[in-house]
Each structure stands twice: as C-alpha cells, then as structure tokens.
Amino acid sequence: MADVALAAPRTESQSAPKRTVAIPAGLRCASPVILFLLLGFIAPLLTVVAYAFATPRSFDVFRSFTLENFATIFDSSNTVWMSFAWSLAFAFCTVVLLALVAYPIAYGLNRVFGKWSGLISVLFVFPLFVSENVRLYGWTLFFIKNGVLDGTLKTLGLAGGPEVLFTPGIILFGMVYVYLPFMLFPMTLGLAMVPRDLVDAARDLGAGRLMIWREIELPLAMPGILIGMLLTFVLAAGAVAEAKILGGQSVIMITHDIEIAFTYSQNWPLGSALAVLLMIIISGLALFVMSKLDLDRILGKR
Amino acid sequence: MGLALVKEQSDVAKPSGAQPLPVLQLVGVRKTFGDFAAVERIDLDIVEGEFLTIVGPSGSGKTTLLRMLAGMEAPSEGNITLRGELINDVPANKRPTCLVFQSLALFPHKTVGENIEFPLKVKNIAPAKRKERALELLRMLRLPESYYGKNVMKCSGGEKQRVALARAFAYDPDVLFFDEPLSALDYKLKKVLEKELKDLHKETGKTFIYITHSLEEAMVMSDRIGVMRAGRLVQVGTPEEIYSRPADRFVSEFVGEVNVIEAVKSSAGEWVAAEGGAPIKLKLPSALTDATKVAVVVRPEFLRFVDKPGAADNAMNGTIYNEYSLGSRIQYQVRVGDKTLLVELSRGNGWKGTLDTPVLVGWDATDAIVVAA
C-alpha cells in the first residue's frame, strides 16, 4: 500500500506528457517471479486440471468436458483406490517412524553433541548429493540374496540374512531412510526455538524430565515438528522409487499408476484426474496443518 | 546487627540463642570453568527471612553464584548447605528454592493462569484448587483476576514481571532468587517495582536473594548487600555500612560518584597529596597504620566551597568548570590541576558566582573515608 502512494507521484512527474497506467513499484519488482510462476506453475497446473475433465484416452484438452475420468476412479470394479490407500498409508507410517527416529537426533544436535553438531549435520546432508535411485540400488545390493548382508552372514557360518527385499517393510525402510533429512532439519530448528531459560525455569519450579518434555519442550518445538511432518508426508505420498526398486512392484503406489496412465496406456485424462485427486488430498492436509501453525513465531517475528 | 560474615561459624551450624540459624550457608564455594574461576572461595551465611542483594559489575560471578544456589550449577569446590543439609548435588527441581530469571522465562504458549499454576500442576494439585490459588496470587500481585485467561505474551513489561513473581510464589519456596529481573524496565516502573518487591518481602517473610549490577537498586531494597568483584565477595554489610564504610576503593567507587584523592606519606611522615604535594589531614583507620599510600574518598556532598584555607581541614585551589542540575541538588565540576572534583550542594546553597572562576574547595577529615590505594 505504501508503495503505491510513493510510486504514483513519481511516475506522474517523470512521464508527464505520455500518461501510462501507474504500476506500483512492488508489483514491478515482483513481475519476474509472477511471470515465472504463471508460466512454470499455474499454466501446467491448469493444463493438468483441464486434462482431468477431457474425454478419456484422447488429447481433446480444453475442447471437451466430462466427469468420466473421475467416474472411472470411483468405479468400485476398479482397484486404483488401493494405490491411493497404499501411498497414504506408507506416507503416514513414514511420518510416524521418522518422528520417532528424528526426535532423539534433533535433540542431540541441539543439546548433546556440542561442537560435533555441525559435522553430524553435514553427515546427514551428505547422502542428498547422491541420486536417490543410486542409493536405493545400493540397499538392494545390501539386502539381496547373496548380497552384502546375506553373503557376509553366510561367510561367517551363520544362517543367511532375512529375506526382506520386495516386501512392504523394506519399502517403508527405504522411505524412512530417504526422507530422514527432511524431517530432521525442521525438527532441529523447532527444538532450537525452545529457550534454555524456559527448561531451567520449569525444572526450578519442580518439574521432572517427562513433565518438562510434555509441557514445555514438545509444545514449543511443535511448529518445527509439524513442518517436518508435512514436508515428509507430501514427499512420501508422491514417492515411487522405493516401491519400484526395493519393493520390486510388490506394492503399486499412486504415483506409479499416474505414470502408467501417462506413458504405457496413453490415457492422459485419467492420469490427470488421478493427479488432481492426489493434489486435493495433500493440499487439503497441508492447509489444515498450516492453519494450526504460528508462522510468525517460526520466522522469529515475535 | 549480628549479620556480618562469620567465617569461624561455618563448620558447625549450631543453633544459638542470639544468632538465627542460617537458611543457606556457603563454605569455601568455588566454581571454575576450565582455567577460569568464576567464583573464588566464598563464605557466606544467609539468614532466614533476610533480603540479601549481591551486587557487582558484569562478569563478577554473581550470576554463577546464584545458579549454584538455585541448583543449576554444581560448585567445583566447597559446600552449600540448606538448613544444615548439604545440597551441592541436589538438582533444582528438588530444592525448596525458586529463581526469577532475568528473562522472566514465562511460558509463551501458556496463559497467565497456566503460568502461575505450573508449579501446582507439577505437584498434582486439583485444577479447582490450582485456580483458586492462582487468583489469590493475582490479587496479591495487584493484577486483575480477568488476566487469568490472558495470553502471557500480550502482557506489558511490568505485568509480566508480576506474573513471574506470582509463579514463583505459587511454588511456595523457602528462598527466592532474583537474577536482575528489573533490568529491562524503564526507570519509573523499576522504582515502583523495587518498592513492591520490598513490600512483598515483608508480607511473605521469605528469604530473598537478589542480584543486580545497580547498587542503587540494592540500597533501596536490601537488608544486607554483598559486593562482588572478580569472583570474590569484597564486602558484606548493611546498606549503611556499605555506603559509609566501604572496605576498599572498588566498593567506594561502586557506591556512586566519589572524589578519590591519592595521598602518600612524605619522608617527614606527613600525609601529602600524591599530586601537587599539598599536606592532607586525614583520619587513618587502624588497619592502615603501616600504609605509605592511601586513597582518600570524599563524596561530592561532603565537598564545599570555602572562602579561606582555614575554613576546612583540607582545601584545594581549583577552577569551577561546569554545573549540573540534579533536581533538588546541584553538582559542580571543579578542575584541580589535572584532576576533576565533584562538589554537590543543595539548590539553595548553590554557587552564586560565574563559571570559570577560581575557587577553594574544602572538606573536613571526618567526612572523608580512607581506604587502601
């Protein structure tokens, strides 16, 4: 608002003879970003939404309107809902496991590791420099029959390793492994926002460890924890590589169905409809969580 | 007063008729961080129900001392006893003491009522009883009862202060510690709260231990003041003792604006000013009989303008340079050689002449304090 007031008189004096429409300075500065978002985000999104309402197995986008694609998804003879269920269930389990695994590490990074915290953080970031597929194939080699684990155990004269490859369990393991940093760092930030004084004060007022954790640490770290949960949920709900590589297609994820619709079956309208549905579910969840967050506090404005 | 630092008594805490049993006792307490000694061998008895203020510049170790008393740090050496019981390693949540933090450490996600009730919740007291007590404390600290459900972060500075106090009282500690809780407030509010705190001390009869860097604050509230410097307690005494009989130059300068004139013993055995060599009449305390160099401390209010050298025990020639109004009093800056002396007079008795005129500044030997240089 202030920008408008400031910019308006200046544009007037500079271009007195040729009167143009005064564009506020803020809008002018934002125009590259707006343009980029329009071309790179809004346009493809609208195209996908439009495709979702196009005639099945056609490319009649923007020229036809039908709800047939959605009817196909909700048709009870169709099992695509299974993929949705798998994806959301895996995402849910991943988030829960990650919260349990990352909390002690985040706590350690804040309070225990001291000068080693930096190095340990770097170690957690480091795997991100290697492609996810490569790392997952690495795990396949580790768990495969006569692989690293199985082979080593046999060499030692023990019974072979467990046959975990191509099971839902290993998919979950893969997801927890891949998305750990995305939970860990928001959580570490969240815990860092708990002032030391408050913990000391609570203890001084007689509170034990559990009480301090429940009443002070957890509620104050919650914004960071929720952001980590949201981030990993969104990523895990769209995950496909873990199921394909470690799971060996034993479980079909929704992302996989979408991919198939766009490629082998050349049914872009159905793929789009699936994608739109997934987007609605995830963004609904995201909006719900965001409404519970106090962003001002996270960004240090209070 | 019988409140002085008693070192001999430290090993046996015997209950005697005249001497009240100390609630907290420190014997040779020392705290080191690596090679740095933050607190150096402190012996101190804290009497039940007193208001003791530890005052010192930043880095003097007063916060470390307080954290050891509250149970947030363990002493490296020495013993801390509470009513005769050794509490060196008793954690903060097991001590009947409570600290009001400099930051106040209010729980931002809780309401005023929830903050006050926190220690009661820890003790598993029923919600109805907790609320009753919280409202009682709100009244005691002159906060409206409607604040019970208020967001604590929406309270003003002074209100937060009172909420923090209410929360500490809810814990019902035997000893309350204060870590400069008033330092962030404006002057006027600070003055009001200082007096309220002293009233609360009288009302509750609890032992208050307060730390601050402002001796002015300490003077207003305390029964006893301990002055700390570089990890040591330099002097412990009543505000009157600290003010009129400072143990050394550091304490005297810490107490407020003072004039310090260094004096040396001449070859003839006479005391003369270290600068200029004018003879100085002084009352030497018995502890300094062997000294050859002392500091003569004269408060600005004990200096006056005299018309002839004989009108005061001591007189120095100077030039009146500037004047500062202090409300009911006026302070004059007088240049004597390279030195600057401050003379404080009541408004009615002010200097009648102009600035930049030569004057004679004098004081009586009985008004000066002589300390080791």
From TrEMBL, chain A:
Gene3D superfamilies membership: MetI-like
Membrane topology classification: Multi-pass membrane protein
Principal location listed in the UniProt entry: membrane
Family matches, as Pfam families: BPD_transp_1 (PF00528)
Entry keyword set: Cell membrane, Membrane, Transmembrane, Transmembrane helix, Transport
Entry annotated with the keyword Membrane: yes
Residue intervals passing through the bilayer: 33-54, 84-106, 118-144, 164-185, 218-241, 273-293
Family: Belongs to the binding-protein-dependent transport system permease family. CysTW subfamily.
Protein name as it appears in the record: ABC transporter permease
Organism: Flaviflagellibacter deserti
UniProtKB/TrEMBL annotation, chain B:
Molecular function GO labels: ATP binding
Domain ABC transporter as annotated: residue spans: 24-255
Keywords attached to this entry: ATP-binding, Nucleotide-binding, Transport
SMART domains reported in the protein's UniProt record: AAA
InterPro entries: AAA+_ATPase (IPR003593), ABC_SmlMolc_Importer (IPR050093), ABC_transporter-like_ATP-bd (IPR003439), ABC_transporter-like_CS (IPR017871), Mo/tungstate-bd_C_term_dom (IPR008995), P-loop_NTPase (IPR027417), Transp-assoc_OB_typ2 (IPR013611)
Pfam family, one: ABC_tran
Annotated coiled-coil segments of the chain: none
Residues making up the signal peptide according to the UniProt record: none
PANTHER family: SPERMIDINE/PUTRESCINE IMPORT ATP-BINDING PROTEIN POTA (PTHR42781), SPERMIDINE_PUTRESCINE IMPORT ATP-BINDING PROTEIN POTA (PTHR42781:SF4)
Family designation: Belongs to the ABC transporter superfamily.
Annotated protein name in UniProt: ABC transporter ATP-binding protein
